[in-house]
Amino acid sequence: MSLQILRIGLDVPLNRLFDYANDGFNAKVGARAVVSFSGRKLVGVIVEISDSSDVSRDKLKPVEHVFDDVVFDARMFKLLSFCANYYHYPLGQAMIAALPLRLRQIKPAVTRKSFIYSLTQVVDINDLPKRQLVLQRIVEVLQQGSATEAQLAAISGSWRKAIIKLKEMGCLQQEEVIAVKPSIKSSSAEPTLNQEQQAVIKSVLSEQSTFKPWLLYGITGSGKTEVYIQILKTMLAEKDAQALVLVPEINLTPQLEARFRSRLSEYPLATLHSNLTESERLQSWQAASSGDAKIVIGTRLSVFTAMPHLKIIMIDEEHDGSYKQQDGMRYHARDVAMMRAKQLSIPILMGSATPSLETWYLAKKQQYGLLRLKARAVDNAQLPKIHCIDIGKSPTENGLSPIFIKAMRERLSRGEQSLLFLNRRGYAPVMHCNACQWTAPCMRCSARLVVHLNQKRMKCHHCGHEQRIPIQCPDCGNPDLSPVGQATQRLEQTLASLFPEANIARVDRDSVRNKNALTALLSKVHDKTIDILVGTQMLAKGHDFPHLTLVGVIDTDTALFSPDFRASERLFSQLMQVSGRAGRAAIAGEVLIQTTFPQHDLFTALRAQDYEAYADTLLDERQAMQFPPTSYFAMLKAEASTYTHVLQFLNKAAQQAREISKDVMVYDPLRPQMERLKSMERGQLLLQAETRKDLQQLLRVWMPQLRAQKLANKLRWVLDIDPLEL
Ligand code: ADP
Ligand code: ZN
Ligand code: ZN
User: Fold this and answer.
1) Could you read off the pLDDT of 639-686 as tens digits, one per residue?
2) DSSP bridge pairs for 688
3) Which residue of 226, 314, 352, 579 sits with most ligand 1 atoms within 8 Å of its CB, as the best mutation to test the pocket?
4) Taking the complete model, does pTM exceed 0.85, yes or no?
5) Which residue, judged by its Cα, is nearest atom 10 of ligand 1?
């Protein structure tokens, strides 16, 4: 009898699969297997079952165990293989990274069922056996309402015995805890869709069962989310149908999840994001892959969730940079979703008020359907008026222009809210010596330390290094060091002294650490307990603030002149988004932007709220420079403790690339803006091609050459396909 060979993908940085002999396990493609690899036990995924191997029989090791559950079906393999090829990343590693942590462990994937218990009838403590104190305590707790296993276990280690006793008495009810939480139906009436919304929905539903990419370009508050909900209502009504909804950062958009839950309550919904426990994540994954969950809302990684009946993919805020993975396999979830939709012949709907130029370009070329929502959905809701405050002419005091302070004072007296947007957390970006101009550097990075005054510390926002604020200048001994520049904590302090009567809340990663904190804060904004909000981009995303009528943008001039070619695209979309927070209800909003360059094109377009005109200008520039989206980039990044090694490696790489292809432009190696990060000297090499095909052809020959370079082991290097930042 011939031996069964299992070809297995493992989490090792080698671009190949590994053969093992199967002795008696019932193996299926897509199941997980345990093998020994270089003396370690690893979990892998069976990619192929064969009866022959290139490895000689006596060298072939036996597989140690095979689990029953199939984690990937043929369609997921196809998607993962595409990714491994396109991003030039080992298939085994791509597969393992797509799995929830629990499935990467050498254990069967059982989520132990867990229950919530409650009493079905009143139990009199006096009727219970006298000496069973644990039972009595548990009954006391359950009399106040239902309790989870964790809550009961906190009472006593022998809680299970008590539960069994109560079951025997017939007065206990248990309900299984599931990740796919039952949703509560909304009591509020559904809005009547306006004509634009109806037209959009009709278009998408007219091509339900073919591959069709759509860009839904709709200004903030135009009712895009409402459109998603209505499309899902129709499409999910079909038997078994599932939908995948990608969102940038679920913690920042609690409102979206809540709206989906209340409006689509008939469809079990699972979420997948980094704020879940591993057990919850496994449950969500299993609910999705079994088909039980009809809607999966998740962040970029959830694009790899197995969903057997996937009928549509939606990407909210498709322009958001967080869809790009920045380590491991550097995929872009939007591009992977696009490929997935294509492979499955299903529609994909991407929504944004400021689409990425990549998407805009293809919509303009009619490769994507372009759907527009031009007006705000709520009756009478007007677009905010956007003005620039020329701080060259009217200087600021403590970072704030008197014009802006006056506008805030008016809002306070009318009981309306203001928001100050400053995309820099901490107290001040620099600690400075007035005598010798010294500024506090990070010892490990080419960056300055940010002052966090309330903790009396300085922190590097790039590597996490922190230290105490020195009592004197380390260079000249001057004791008179001062924080220079504005960041959110300082702004909050300034506002508190300007408006002592106002309630001020700061929203940034230091003050708001999780979804619950953000939800609590947002509800305070809603019931008007808060008058002034200060915050970073955390505030810009998707929140609906009906009483907010003033938005101030404090300092954007650094971003205006960033060397990154995507900086102005990002800034524009950020400012449009934060402007969109003002005047969502009946009161018109006002946006004031403090800048030294009020005449800049970006502000002209912003004042006119004309994304299209600005996008077209930027596209012309990109075309002229042959930058993406009119061309394709790949970037080789390398780092080592000495730059010479980096340069040698990159020079050789450049030479090799030039020899492989004449159709790809190979730039000279460069140091990135952040030359040193975490004590590593960094360099990069940019490749540019007119087509993805040209680029991929080169990469296929080039990658093995890079791996074979002698220096390759002495430094860390990665290839970033379609890099977002240069
Ligand atoms: P977007 O996702 O484009 O920012 P939303 O879907 O959140 O827009 O809609 C903005 C606001 O308008 C929400 O409060 C929503 O309930 C409301 N809304 C959406 N569509 C309509 C409609 N047709 N009629 C009235 N209100 C609507
Ligand atoms: Zn000094
Ligand atoms: Zn640092």
Assistant:
1) 999 999 999 999 999 999 999 999 999 999 999 989 999 999 999 999
2) 633, 665
3) 226
4) yes
5) 221
